Amino acid sequence: MTDKKQGKLIVFSAPSGSGKTTIVRYLLAQKDLDLEFSISATSRAPRENEVDGEDYYFMDLKEFKSHIKNDDFLEWEEVYRDNFYGTLNSEVERIWAMGKHVVFDIDVVGGLDIKRIYPEQTLAVFVEPPSIEELKIRLKKRKTESEDRIATRVAKASIEMATAPQFDHIIVNEDLDTALGEAYELVKNFIK
């Protein structure tokens, strides 16, 4: 990375189905926060309605591993077998060049990696579901994944929730309006 003083890094991490993407989308709509979304790279195939360069930078496994070898990632992880996700250094530089703060919607390992690399510039927020049972209900309501995939995500959620105390703040997303307000105040206070 070039200049470490350019902008703030705001990380939102959570188990799948906790509501972090909804919170991040809300924050991006708040123009006074001057945020830009960091588009992650992934080796997984696009889901229906996902757009390359908008939702993710989609790349095949070989290309992703080539970027790892070239040290092009700020952080990366093999989240599921042969499903890699990561943040390209060029993505953060692109946003800082716009004079904006970077907001991330990423897994807990990636979020904590960014906090470790940029401890003073990063606000790391963990979004927690009210319970594992509620998480399971939310994932089923999406109707985007098989029962096996949901079971895998729920099992991973228990492990991810154990990392929550390592984040700067925990938002329990029981009531969405309350969670949105809490997230807004945290970010607003951090960037001023």
Q: Secondary-structure blueprint of this entry?
A:
Elements lengths: L8 E5 L6 H10 L5 E3 L3 E2 L14 E2 L2 H9 L3 E8 L2 E6 H9 L3 E5 L2 H10 L4 E7 L3 H11 L4 H15 L7 E4 L3 H16 L1
Report on the structure:
By secondary structure, the chain is of the alpha/beta class. The protein has one domain (9-191): P-loop containing nucleotide triphosphate hydrolases (Rossmann fold, 3-Layer(aba) Sandwich). It has helices at residues 20-29, 61-69, 89-97, 108-117, 132-142, 147-161, 176-191, and strands spanning 9-13, 35-37, 41-42, 57-58, 73-80, 83-88, 101-105, 122-128, 169-172. The strands form 2 sheets. The chain has a 5-stranded parallel sheet with strand order 2-7-1-8-9, with helices on both faces. The chain has a 4-stranded mixed sheet with strand order 4-3-6-5, sandwiched between helices. α5 (132-142) runs antiparallel to α6 (147-161).
